[in-house]
Specification:
1236 residues, mainly alpha, 1% strand, Cullin-associated and neddylation-dissociated 2 (putative), TATA-bd_TIP120, repeat
């Protein structure tokens, strides 16, 4: 410290005082300032360099440290002379006698790489490489560290700088020479280490050296030193991803040739390890050689050498994971071998262990009977390595081959369960992991899980049968001293509870003692307790309260003890479990006979202690608030005098920024409790605080606050005065915006709630709030839940009799904009707002039935009046329809004539509005209007399309009960019109038939099937008629999208037919003469497009049922097809890059060429504007696919991809497009495609 203070004093005093005179012009002053700064840096650096030559090691250390600080600044600029001096000095310091100075000098080399010119970096590299072969060991070590530092700081190859390539080539040629020094192993090791680093980061820049690197690495595999062999293998692994196919073949053939020589030895193990490493790094290339490799591996498994067997199983694991397609024929044989060697423990008798359990010390794994055997000890036993590697191989099979799940339950599952008794802890841990993988794979994929109609998967049924056996096998293990074993047990049980909710119920008595032991044992680690608590939480969440009631007395005390644990993670997990147990003790949704009173005090006091603590972890604070909220919500009536002080603590947490969100959620929970907890004492202060949250810029807080206020206003309306809600009402106008429909919806629901229970609070609503609601009604974005909330709001508001909210005021405000619209522009107001306003008008009329009749008459007059603008006529029709839905308009006799006349209107929108109106009025007056509608459909062929639309409205809106008496009449009529010449009419008929069938599916579906020539919907995919095939594919797509469970079992038969429809058929391509031009028409395009859309949907809903490689074959073809198909397949490719990266990597070389062709194609000069726009969009889509492919780490290392990316970067136009699409979210591009 003393030295440093003197040194700083010297530094400060040595700075020259110079600044340019203020009278100099600005530009000159700027240049002058730059020059001064440069000279200051140069002066400072030369000062440091001078101190580095000091005889005092402390001065040298300080100066080097300061230089490092300077070099790390982005702003530093060195002149040529300074660069040379700094490089020379740092290289000299590498030979410094003081180790600390040497280390600092090495650290300086990293930032220096980007601060000096290329030839200086080359000087550094030359010196470091020559030092590498020095006789001095310390200099060799420090120089190799220096080289690694330089390599780590070189810019990546993708930056396209020459510096990296030149420096790498320089280093590589020196390293290849250094590796040849057989006499000095340490030089070889360092050279291999550096080469490995360089190949790992910058392999693609060394393509010209790949052959010589391979040639120099292969002899190292036979080195007598294991460390050399291992490092050579590592370097070869890094070489593989970016080497050429020819070079890879050379390496693979060399390894196979050496392995086929016969007699196994140390070198055989090395070659197998090498094969495993290159499979992990570039596995898809190994696939084509597997037919020769697998028999050799099987042969080596039978050799009595446990380490060799271990290597073989590691290789099998790599093959299974990296070459799934090529391994398919061999997978059953690999499973058989794994099952054979998972029990390979020749020196241990498990039967004896079971018979003599008491006389054996399981901890040390020693068998007293064998101690007399001098020739053998446990240290020589390598059989555990074989067992572990075979289990890991099985885990790979389980993880990669979900299609074999049912078979795996027959063969692998019992074997794994029987090996839970494994004596070697590491092996047992891997057995548990393999079983967890099996259970995890059993969980139905997300697509079928959402499908309520799907049958239980066979694998789930098989797992349920295994539950008793698994529990029996784990029962003893849960009491073992080994924490690793117990953690493994809990991971299995947690996964089973998640996959099979409720299935562990009858076994809970067997599990409770093990859980209690792990929570109470004094030697238990923190992680062990956390795992036990996490499992208990999952168990409680996935089972009914009744199964736990007998055990609460035993399980609650240790959990409460954990709540008081000093380690915050245990406390947090224990609070979550306590919360779940409170819900179990007294479930609110149904009556329970369980008496919770004896436990209330303990649960409350332990949680309260954590709730009051201020100096605890954020997670514990939040969990304590939430847990106490559940206690109050479920047991509040038993807290007596403790209740109000607890609520005051909630109020305090509401005022704290860190805990306010959790406090709001908890308040919502308490306010909604059926126990009617008395919140009045905190509401006077709490409501304004909640109101203030509505203006915070935190969406989650606003949403939760609105929900809380909704429940509080509903349940505690008797204690509200208008002034209390004023602070809330003032914040609401800003929240009712179309930019966030969900918040708008919840805010309007709150207003509705206020209008119903506290109408006086809305006295001033007309000022700021109502205009925002009306603006939202006229928004084109309004639909669904938000529209429903506004409809309810108007119904409640009109009954409050507040100022400016009478029936006529609201009607005027709603319909006003349509009267202002110009008559020539019937759609100057967005179409959606017509429907929204019509629903609101109908809602007001149903709330004020006295006004309703007059409104209907006015609307009929508006429709009849020829001078009325189109927009008002459309709105009037839609309003009549919405009102007719809920009110019988049979008294207005002229209505039928008015509607039928509108069908002849020249305006399409008016016709469509009249069609909707007829359907809706029919819903409200079925007896009179349905016969009229059916008669008109039969007798008015020219108006059939519109009348069928009306019928569709009726079928969609009515319940099955109301429709049943009329089904036969409608069914007969629809089938009369299903062969109509107009395709649009046929489409409406098909929609009506589909909706009608749902009224009575058991009978009508079979009648619908009879109408098919084949009698089977999916056979229509092979129909000779193109249009039938297309529609059959659309139907299949809809099933895959909405009910994947229906088609999963049929995919084996359907996929070949689906794939055949993706092929281009030349017999469907024809030329049409258009004047002097010939135009090509592809009649098969629509069918192909429908087939590709089905393929895309299957990716999301049935991925596990697809052979991805076969799927990719057709995607490849689609990449060369028509514009529409290519756009689809680019999106599919982007999706596949995230779903099945390994398969995409394997096919990369075949996928890149079509992408390259699309990106480099130019439109002919003189083409129309649309052609240029199409090509531009195609290129953008292809570039998005390229960006998605590059997100897979291995793709960047591929030579063909590196070449393509380089081509993109070299072309300014392509580079610009690529840069612009890299910001696009691939998922967004994919999700935007609606194939439903």
């Amino acid at each position: 410290a003393w030295f440093h203070s003197i040194y700083i004093c010297l530094e400060v005093s040595s700075f020259p005082a110079c600044s340019p005179p203020l009278s100099v012009p600005v530009s000159a002053r700027y240049v002058s300032a730059l020059n001064v700064e440069m000279s200051n840096v140069t002066y400072h650096i030369s000062n440091l360099l001078e101190k580095m030559t000091s005889t005092d090691k402390d001065f040298r250390f300080m100066a080097t440290n300061d230089l490092m600080m300077e070099l790390q600044k982005d702003s530093i600029k060195l002149d040529e002379d300074s660069e040379r001096k700094v490089v020379t000095m740092l290289l000299k310091l590498l030979e410094d006698k003081n180790g600390e100075v040497q280390n600092l000098a090495v650290k300086c080399l990293g930032p220096l790489v980007s601060k000096v010119k290329e030839y200086q970096v080359e000087t550094m590299v030359d010196t470091l490489c020559s030092n590498m072969v020095s006789d001095k060991e310390q200099l060799r070590d420090i120089s190799s560290m220096g080289l690694k530092t330089v390599i780590a700081e070189l810019p990546p190859a993708s930056a396209g700088l020459c510096l990296t390539a030149n420096v790498c080539k320089k280093i590589t040629s020196q390293l290849i020479g250094a590796m040849g020094k057989q006499d000095d192993v340490s030089v070889q090791l360092e050279a291999l280490d550096i080469l490995s680093d360089m190949l790992g980061r910058l392999s693609s820049t060394l393509v010209s050296f790949h052959q010589s690197i391979l040639t120099s690495l292969l002899p190292q595999l036979t080195s007598p030193r294991m460390a050399v062999r291992k490092r050579a293998i590592m370097a070869l692994g890094h070489l593989v991803p970016s080497c050429s196919p020819a070079l890879f073949t050379q390496l693979a053939e060399h390894l196979m040739k050496e392995l086929s020589r016969g007699s196994p030895g140390a070198n055989t193990r090395t070659y197998i390890q090498c094969l495993t490493t290159i499979t992990r790094q570039g596995g898809h290339r190994v696939g084509e050689h597997l037919e020769k490799i697998i028999p050799m591996m099987v042969k080596f498994c039978n050799v009595e050498d446990d380490e060799l067997r271990e290597n073989c199983f590691q290789a099998f694991e790599a093959f299974v994971r990296r070459c799934p397609k090529e391994m398919s024929p061999h997978i059953s044989m690999v499973i058989k071998l794994c099952l054979k060697y998972i029990t390979h423990d020749p020196n241990y008798n498990y039967d004896a262990e079971e018979d003599q359990e008491d006389s054996m010390d399981l901890e040390n794994g020693e068998d007293e009977d064998q101690e007399s055997d001098d020739e053998y000890s446990d240290d020589d036993d390598m059989s555990w390595k074989v067992r572990r590697s075979s289990v890991k191989c099985l885990e790979a099979v389980i993880s990669c081959r979900r299609d074999l799940l049912v078979d795996l339950y027959g063969s692998v599952c019992p074997a794994l369960v029987s090996r839970f008794k494994e004596r070697e802890e590491n092996v047992k841990s891997d057995i548990f992991l393999a079983f967890v993988a099996l259970v995890r794979q059993t969980k139905p994929p997300h697509g079928s899980a959402l499908d309520a109609g799907a049958k239980e998967e066979p694998a789930v049924t098989l797992l349920k049968k295994q539950v008793p056996t698994v529990i029996k096998a784990l029962h003893k293990q849960l009491k073992e001293k080994s924490m690793k074993s117990r953690q493994g047990c809990f991971s299995i049980l947690t996964e089973m509870a998640n996959v099979l909710p409720g299935a562990l119920g009858e076994h809970i008595p067997n599990l409770i003692p093990g859980i209690v032991y792990s929570l109470t044992d004094k030697s238990t680690s923190s992680n062990m307790k956390i795992d036990a608590l996490a499992f208990l939480h999952v168990l409680l969440s996935s089972h009914t309260p009744e199964v736990f009631h007998p055990h609460i007395k035993v399980i609650l005390p240790p959990v409460i003890h954990c709540v008081e644990d000093p380690f915050y993670k245990i406390t947090s997990e224990a609070l979550q479990v306590t919360q779940q147990m409170v819900k179990m003790m007294r479930p609110l949704e149904k009556r329970s006979s369980f008496d919770a009173k004896p436990y209330v005090k303990d649960v409350f006091s332990s949680t309260l202690k954590r709730l009051k603590a201020a100096d605890i972890d954020q997670e514990v604070k939040e969990r304590a608030i939430s847990c106490m909220g559940h206690i109050v919500s479920h047991l509040g009536d038993q807290l007596g005098g403790d209740l109000q002080p607890t609520l005051q603590i909630f109020l305090e947490r509401l005022k704290n920024e860190i805990t306010r969100l959790t406090a709001v959620k908890t308040l919502t929970l308490v306010a909604g409790s059926p126990l009617k907890i008395d919140l009045r004492p905190i509401l006077m202060e709490g409501i304004p605080i909640l109101g203030s949250f509505l203006r915070k810029n935190q969406r989650a807080l606003k949403l939760n606050t609105l929900t809380a206020l909704n429940i509080i206003v509903t349940n505690y309306s008797d204690c509200f005065k208008p002034i209390m809600l004023e602070s809330v009402l003032n914040e609401l106008p800003v929240l009712i915006q179309e930019s966030d429909m969900h918040i708008s919806q919840v805010a309007i629901m709150l207003l509705t709630c206020m209008a119903k229970v506290c109408p006086s609070s809305l006295a001033k609503i007309g000022g700021a709030i109502l205009p925002e609601v009306l603006h939202l009604v006229h928004s084109p974005l309004l639909q669904g839940g938000a529209l429903g909330s506004i409809v309810e709001f108007f119904q409640a508001l009109v009954l409050t009799k507040a100022s400016n909210t009478g029936y006529s005021d609201l009607m005027k405000a709603l319909t006003g904009p349509f009267y202002k619209a110009k008559s020539s522009e019937s759609m100057s107001v967005h179409r959606q707002s017509y429907y929204s306003v019509a629903k609101c008008v109908a809602a007001l009329s149903s709330a004020c039935p006295k006004e309703s009749s007059g409104t209907v008459n006015n609307l009929i007059q508006e429709v009849k009046n020829q001078r009325t603008s189109e927009s008002v006529r459309i709105l009037s029709f839609l309003c009549l329809g919405e009102m007719g839905r809920t009110t019988n308009l049979g008294g207005h006799k002229e209505l039928k004539t008015v509607i039928m006349e509108a069908f002849s209107s020249p305006n399409e929108e008016v016709k469509f509005a009249a069609s909707c109106t007829l359907g809706n009025i029919c819903v409200g007056n079925l007896e009179e209007y349905l016969p009229f509608l059916l008669k008109e459909i039969g007798g008015q062929p020219k108006r059939q399309y519109l009348l069928l639309h009306s019928l569709k409205e009726v079928i969609s809106a009515l319940s099955a009960e109301n429709l049943k008496p009329h089904v036969e009449n409608i069914w007969t009529l629809l089938f009369k019109n299903c062969e109509c010449a107009e395709e649009g009419t046929r489409n409406v008929v098909s929609e009506c038939l589909g909706k009608l069938t749902l009224v009575n599916p058991s009978q009508l579906l079979s009648r619908l099937k009879k109408q098919l020539s084949s009698g089977d919907f999916l056979k229509a995919i092979q129909d000779p008629d193109l249009n039938v095939r297309r529609v059959a594919l659309v139907m299949f797509n809809s099933a895959a999208h909405n009910k994947p469970g229906l088609i999963r079992g049929l995919l084996t038969a359907v996929l070949p037919k689906l794939y055949s429809e993706t092929q281009i058929r030349k017999d469907l391509i024809r030329e049409v003469e258009m004047g002097p031009f010939k135009h090509t028409v592809d009649d098969g395009l629509d069918v192909r497009k429908a087939a590709f859309e089905c393929m895309y949907t299957l990716l999301d809903s049935c991925l596990d049922c697809l052979d991805i490689f076969e799927f990719l074959n057709h995607v490849e073809e689609g990449l060369k097809d028509h514009y529409d198909i290519r756009m689809l397949t680019f999106i599919m490719l982007a999706r596949l890059a995230s779903l099945s990266p390994a398969a995409v990597v394997q096919r990369l070389e075949r996928l890149v060429e079509p992408l390259r062709a699309t990106c480099t194609t130019k439109v002919k000069a003189g083409s129309v504007k649309q052609e240029f726009e199409k090509q531009e969009e195609l290129r953008r889509s292809a570039m998005r696919a390229v960006a998605a492919l590059l997100s897979i780490s291995e793709v960047e290392k591929s030579p063909i991809m590196a070449d393509f990316v380089n081509q993109i970067r070299m072309n300014a136009e392509m580079a610009t497009i690529f840069e612009s699409v890299q910001g696009d979210p691939i998922s967004g591009a994919v999700e935007s495609m609606d194939t439903s």
